Every structure is written in structure tokens, then in C-alpha cells.
Automatic annotation (TrEMBL):
Transmembrane regions listed in the UniProt entry: 12-34
PROSITE patterns (UniProt xref): TAT (PS51318)
Protein name listed in UniProt: Metallo-beta-lactamase family protein
InterPro entries from the UniProt entry: Metallo-beta-lactamase_dom (IPR052926), RibonucZ/Hydroxyglut_hydro (IPR036866), TAT_signal (IPR006311)
GO MF term list: iron-sulfur cluster binding; transferase activity
Species, as recorded: Desulfomicrobium baculatum (strain DSM 4028 / VKM B-1378 / X) (Desulfovibrio baculatus)
Record keywords, A-Z: Iron, Iron-sulfur, Membrane, Metal-binding, Transmembrane, Transmembrane helix
């Protein structure tokens, strides 16, 4: 297919996909990703074309994509605690466990057991919470390192998320040298995608090595999440990013989607990088907003090179529990309309989904299935991906 045909197809797809909010329940489950594909074309989206500048390239190191180790244990706990809409801080999962049992805990009673140890005595804190928790061995976490090179060669390093388990994430940080980067103040900021346990609860591991690091959180954190920043030992600046686009550095902007998410969480922050002569690269923690809304926001809001959605990295929230449903096939087909030239997926994308992408002929970058990642079909723990020149 020619470039002109690709561009025509992509633009018309976005015009057809442009639509408003569908409601809390659908958004919470990620079904927003599926429903537009089942509808006829909508009215054209107005494009703001905000100029965020350009960068030369980005590199992503997957510190950990293994958020949990057993789907059955995770879903069994959620069901036993009352379901997907129950406050996550009540589950009695680590680190906020108080020993009262599944679904009977609270942030206040749990943090009281370990607050005096944060952020430096994490081994002792984790040993305490393990004894009081439901399935502490199931906790892992999601986090990645993003390295951005500006056009003049200036280098920036950022963290996206800080995982869940203190023990697991500390091991992962040391494996990838993140601990030393933080100690040396090489990492400029921590971006938290959303308040979920597997992306946020491991934040003391970051603060253990740099308690002053600037931390960006999406608007919508609950009082427990806001208090945890203080209780975890943070001494630096906290930036609460409102819904919409926020410019960070040349070629880099974050975007907060005001969406309700399961386990009583609200709002997800994702990242966009405009690479010179290449196109836009989208990086996400979980993509609870859905791939279509993620791509649509870029199309409507940002001016990017070649009008090309070049790449995507992260968890795409499609069949995260390997429970394939026919409606997901529509979404796999729709992905081809974006014209992505490099896809780096993992975490809540689901292994079955990644295999579907490969079968469909999409440019999926495979991994090495090391350090606990289950399959080489996607980028696993310790794997890297680059976008742009000289990477």
C-alpha cells in the first residue's frame, strides 16, 4: 500500500472514531476501545495541532512488566473482596495489609504498620506486610525507564511508574541500574500513570534512592493516594496534571485522560513523543482509556511529524487475563488502521493478544522472556525498544 493510501486510510479512520465519553462502566472496563469500531462514521474531529516541538529519539527499558504472577489469585481476591468497583485499599494486599482479612482493610490501618520504615528500610517493611497480607507473593509491578535525546544531543531520563512489591521492584531496579541512576540524580522525574496497586504502590522504592525526585500524578488521586506520597517519604515537588495535554520538554508531552477505572481509581496519564522526521510515539502504562481514545487524542491535539503515528509502547489493556472474547478480534483488526510502524506491547496487553497482533502481520517487537516474563511474543522484563535515529 502506498504512503498516500496509508495516510488516507488513517485519517478517515480517526474521523470515524472521533466521539465523546461513553459512560463510567464502559470506560472502566476498557470497552471504550471496542465500541467505536462497531459504529458508522462520526463527524470529523477538530484538530488543535498543538506544537510540542521535536526530539531526536527515545529509548524505553522495560524494568518490569510482570504486575502480578497469578491471574487466578488476583481475580479471586478481587471477587472475594466484593468486585471490581471496591476500593483497592481495602483488599488487604501489601503494603496496606493489617491482618484483618480479604476486603476488610484500609489504607490508614495498613500504612500504620510500616510508615516508620519508609522509604529506606523497605526489606523490614515488606517482611511485616507479608505476614499480614492476602497473597503477598503475587505482587510484582509495572515500571519503565524512558530516555529522550533532544535535537542538540541533550539527554533526559524519566521513570514511568514504580510498580507494586517493594521486594520485586527493588530487585528489578538493581538489575537495570535504576537504583544508581536515581542516587546520582540522573532521572529527572517520575510519572505515575494511575493510582492502581501495580503501578503506584511500589513508589517508596523510587524514593529510597531519590526522595526528592519530581513526581507527576494525574488529577483524580484519592485521599489515600495523595497521603501515600507523604507517608512514602517523598520530599520533592509533586505536579498534579489536569485532564488534557501538558508540555514537558522538546518533543515530549503528557496527557491525562479523565476516565474512571476499576478498583476505585480515576484518571490515567500517558506520554507522547514527537520524533523528528519519524512521527509520534505513544507510551502508556495500562491504556485504560482505550487505544482508540489514546490515538484520537493525539490526532486531535498534537501536531506531529509526517502526520504519522509511528510507534506505541506499553500495556494496551486488551485481554489482560487471557480471557479472549470475539469482540477483541474487532480491536485487533482496527489496530491496522493506525499505521503503526513499531509496536512494543506487554503487561496488560495479554499474551494471546500479542500473538493475534503477530498473526495479523503487525510490526510487533518481540522480547526474550527473561526475568519472569512468560513469553517472548512481547517485550518482557529487561527488554528494550528504541524509536527514531541512532537507537
Amino acid at each position: 500500500m502506498s504512503n498516500d493510501q496509508n495516510t488516507f486510510s488513517r485519517r478517515n479512520f480517526f474521523k470515524g472514531a472521533a466521539m465523546g465519553t461513553l459512560g463510567g462502566t464502559i470506560l472502566a472496563m476498557g470497552a471504550y476501545s471496542y465500541s467505536p469500531w462497531r459504529k458508522a462514521f462520526f463527524s470529523s474531529a477538530e484538530r488543535k495541532m498543538v506544537d510540542i516541538g521535536v526530539c531526536k529519539n527515545i529509548k524505553v527499558t522495560n524494568i518490569s512488566e510482570t504486575s502480578w504472577f497469578s491471574n487466578a489469585d488476583l481475580m479471586g481476591d478481587i471477587k472475594g473482596a466484593g468486585g471490581l468497583l471496591v476500593n483497592q485499599y481495602s483488599y488487604n494486599w501489601p503494603p496496606f495489609a493489617d491482618g484483618t482479612g480479604l476486603g476488610k482493610g484500609s489504607y490508614e490501618s495498613g500504612i500504620a504498620k510500616i510508615k516508620h520504615l519508609l522509604p529506606h528500610d523497605l526489606e523490614e517493611a515488606w517482611a511485616i506486610t507479608e505476614k499480614l497480607s492476602v497473597h503477598p507473593e503475587n505482587a510484582g509491578g509495572f515500571a519503565c525507564l524512558i530516555e529522550v535525546e533532544e535535537m542538540d544531543g541533550t539527554q533526559h531520563k524519566y521513570l514511568l511508574d514504580s510498580g507494586w512489591s517493594y521486594k520485586w521492584m527493588d530487585e528489578c531496579f538493581k538489575r537495570e541500574g535504576i537504583d544508581e541512576m536515581l542516587k546520582n540524580r540522573e532521572i529527572e522525574a517520575l510519572f505515575i500513570s494511575h493510582e492502581h496497586f501495580d503501578h503506584y504502590w511500589g513508589v517508596p522504592v523510587t524514593y529510597k534512592y531519590d526522595p526528592t525526585i519530581t513526581t507527576y500524578i494525574p488529577d483524580g488521586f484519592y485521599k489515600e493516594g495523595l497521603q501515600y506520597l507523604k507517608d512514602a517519604g517523598h520530599q520533592g515537588k509533586v505536579v498534579t496534571v489536569k485532564a488534557g495535554l501538558q508540555h514537558v520538554s522538546p518533543g515530549f508531552a503528557s496527557y491525562v485522560f479523565g476516565v474512571p477505572i476499576i478498583c476505585r481509581v480515576y484518571g490515567e496519564q500517558s506520554l507522547y513523543f514527537n520524533i523528528k522526521d519519524v512521527g509520534l510515539v505513544s507510551v502508556t502504562g495500562c491504556c485504560h482509556q482505550g487505544i482508540i481514545q489514546f490515538a484520537e487524542a493525539a490526532y486531535k491535539e498534537i501536531r506531529y511529524e509526517n502526520d504519522q503515528l509511528h510507534g506505541i509502547y506499553g500495556g494496551l489493556h486488551i485481554s489482560p487475563f487471557e480471557d479472549w472474547d470475539p469482540k477483541y478480534d474487532d480491536l485487533v483488526l482496527s489496530l491496522g488502521k493506525y499505521g503503526f510502524q513499531k509496536i512494543g506491547c506487554n503487561h496488560c496487553t495479554g499474551i494471546l493478544c500479542a500473538k493475534k497482533f503477530v498473526e495479523a502481520g503487525y510490526p510487533v517487537v518481540k522480547g526474550t522472556a527473561r526475568f519472569g516474563s512468560k513469553d517472548a511474543v512481547y517485550l518482557g522484563n529487561g527488554d528494550k525498544i528504541g524509536f527514531g535515529v541512532d537507537v
